[in-house]
Amino acid sequence: FHHNTTFNYFCKVAFFNCWIVALTTLLCPLVALVVGRSVENMKILCAAIQPLKHFYGIKMQVWGSEHLDLKEPYVIVCNHQASLDLLGMVEVIPKRCVPIAKKELLYLGTVGWACWLSGIIFIDRHRTDAAIDVLSQTARTMWRENLRVWVFPEGTRNPDKPMLPFKRGAFHLAVQAQVPIFPIVISPYRDFFSSKEKRFSPGTCTIRILPKVETQGLSPKDVPRLTETVRQAMADALAEMSVN
Question: What transmembrane ranges does the database entry give (predicted)?
Answer without folding.
Answer: 14-35
